[in-house]
Predict the 3D structure of the following.
Amino acid sequence: MMERLIENVAQLFLLLALAPLVTGVIRTLKARLQTRRGPAILQPYRDLVKLFGKGMVVPDTASWIFAATPWIVFFSTVLAGLMIPMVAADAPLGLFGGVLAVIYLLGLGRFFLALSGMDSGSSFGGLGSSREMTISALAEPAMMLAIFTVAIGAGSTGLTEIAGAAIGQHWRFLAPAQMFAFAALAVVLIAETGRIPVDNPATHLELTMIHEAMILEYSGPYLALLEWAASIKQLVLMTLLINCFWPFGLQPAWFGFGALQGIGWLLAKLLLLSCAIVLLETVNAKMRLFRVPELLAVAFTLGSLALVSTFLF
Amino acid sequence: MIVELFLSGIIVWLAGAVASLALWRRPAAARRVGCGAALAGSLLVLLGSAAAIFSGSSPEISLPFGNPVFSWAIRMDPLSAFFNATLAALAAAVSLYSFGYLRPMEGRRNLGAFGFFFNLLLLSLALVFTASNAFFFLVAWEVMALAAFCLVSFEHEKKETRNAGVLFLIMSHAGTGLLLIAFLVLASASGSLDFSSFHLLASQLPPVRQGTVFLLFLFGFGVKAGLVPVHIWLPKAHPVAPSNVSALMSGIVIKSGIYGMARVFFDFYGPPPLWMGTLVLALGVASALLGVLYALMEHDLKRLLAWHSIENIGIILMGFGAALMFRSLGHANLAALALIAALYHTFNHAIFKGLLFLGAGSVVEATHTRNMEKMGGLIRRMPVTALCFLAGAVAISGLPPLNGFVSEWLTYQALLAGFGTTHSLTRLMFPIAGSLLALTAALAAACFVKAFAIPFLALPRSDEAAEAREVSLPMRAGMAVLALGCVALGLGATWFVRVFDPITQQTLGVRASSALVMARGWALSPGTAHGGTISTAGIALFFLFAGMAFALPLAMRWRRRSVRGPAWDCGLPGLTADNEYTATAFSKPLRMIFSALYRPRREIQAEYEVSPYYPSAIHFESEIEHPIEKHLYDPLRQWIMAVANRMKGIQAGSINLYLTYIFLTLILLLLFGVRQ
């Protein structure tokens, strides 16, 4: 019982502390690849500190949904983060739910975020909510097919079991089913975290923005909570992707020297995935909104291929 | 004890029906008696069915009249008791709501007749769920259909209402016709009309007849349930009914079709051929997807909810289909899991859809329109209604920790477990159905963002919405009871799954709940080898703890630093309701993406005086197509009209001619009888 608590607290700190760093690393790497200097790696932390210290303006048209949303989004994302294996194969809150619960908790956050976008009455919020819900709905079947493929391989939707089944089989990710599922999930990850070519986290142009449009009316501490939650969500999805398919370095438990080793491996794998994301973002332009369904259809096809390969091989 | 409680509930409903009809000249008394009797009867039936479920017994009783062939026999087995409990739980809340909902109608409408049909509907539903004789079942079924028809057509001065009512009646009778044939086939094989003689009988019929009977039952019950493609009456009839009736129609009347299917699939049939489960699963997926896709395009709040009923029936049928397939493949434990998922969702849907229709009823009463584009900002004017509707919206979107999440999670687990049950290509059905369920659920979430945000958030879009008033206390109480039900059924999932033990014992011979409950009742697992777990209570506790410990104190502190200001309006002179995103705009991306299905058509006319850049008026019209109605029902209707036209010739109106027809028919029937 005590050990569980320590695991949870440790993973909680890791989530909260690491998430802005990942965002910072991606921004800096991207800037360097585009031969810009870019902000410092620690800039996201400074942004958060600054925003938490500020006052805020609440639209006079908004209701209590507007104030409740940042909390719901933040807590549901953090809870989802505690349900995934990060350093140890054993997810600290694995009992509370497996991969399906993680997806649906993120869905709960998105549901309220979309509501808050509509709450102020500004058309930007509605535009963002409408696009976000559309894209996430279309991403869902591809994600579920990929996850089913992984879960079928492990015989469970529990993430502890999924990571546990993959431990020790370092080259399993080269199996066709795993590769297709990985590719499908990677596309979904890009769509879900709002990165290029689906959404651009750095834009405030009404023709293209999705996530930024929903949170346009937020300021001060609430904006900080939402930005932080968005980085945590990105970290959760990235960790989910690397630890389900390439659990190399996952420790059997959260204690002792092993934990440090596990954190080291996690950072190394996150850095690798961040590089891949940066490369993708730099060589691609943002897609038109109505081209995104085609991208997601590709992901769905990849997911189906993954499933059929399980059947064949 | 069980039978006494049940029968006293029936008698209270009967008395309520007669008494409120007798009091029709005194509307206030008729309303109180009608709703009071409905409430009291529901509570009695709820107690009785709960007792029946937990005792695990199946008491039987035969009413003292009738004859051996057409006996009025009632049997309260666990399956019947479960559906009765669903009926009674929903009906109690709806009756409470009706106290307030019917009040403004006093003196304007015949509330005596309303009370009569309302109680009659509850009574006949309870008898449908318990009748254990095919003849009695069909009588109760018809009474139910007629009572529902009268309630749907209650506001019959509108043409839309009359048309919808008649369509409902026609479809319903076509379905009953199919059921009649199916029951007669079974009866001719068993020599009796008793359900007990049908037990496992259908599986012993020759293959062709067995398949035919299955299809007859599937579509016969499917009409009532709203199965695609026999669903077309549902989105027309549910919205035009008074809202408390809509709640009953979507919550429980369509479940009579689900009950019938459960009775046939798991009682009359033994392990069926594989194609039957496959067909049910495929139809479930089609219903779920089409239901939610058309719901997204609606901006009539009640019709949107009606389309969602089709979606949820689809999800229930996915569970049934998987259960049938597992039965064919010899996996009783998995079949129990899938059946539990389906029945859990049946109960959940009754609660949250009832809640949503009651919420919609409150909104319609306050704004005098069903069109979402004329609402807005109601969360400030009607806080309780808004909160209850939000609970229903979260529940129906399948989001944790409310009840919809639990049953959808169980459905996913059943579908996932299906992959390992066979080595044929059939097994690909399961994960594909699962991914389409994920699409359905995500689209439903998108739809309910719209259905909550457009009416309740931002600025009011009409004068009625700006002056809306919160509804009366009984109406709020009825909604609150159901909202609490959504929470309880979500958090108490590990307790509630025990309810299904007697049902799976009766139908499949296994008790599954002990395998489903883990960690001292804190977590739910699918009961397969090492499936994942969920703990809705744990998730809720996390939110509660985090909210109390961090959110509340911090929000208090930040409040001091926050100021109210106008939302960003792009520099225009102030934000008005005209700037807001509309329901049509919200679903526009999906309308374009799925345009192959919708075939949207739109027409825009702009009027201007000086320059085309400054239009003085814009007329916008948009329409989507319903392919099933266009390509299946329109030709069918034309064919029926053509045949009817031809048949005019033999109806000359002369009595002698008709007597000859009767005589000829008699001779033919006699010849047929002799030949047999």
Remarks:
- DSSP finds 29 helices and seven strands in chain B.
- The CA atoms of residues 286 and 599 of chain B lie 18 Å apart.
- Strands of chain B lie at 60-66, 71-75, 517-518, 523-524, 562-565, 601-608, 615-623.
- Chain B touches chain A through 84 residues (CB under 8 Å).
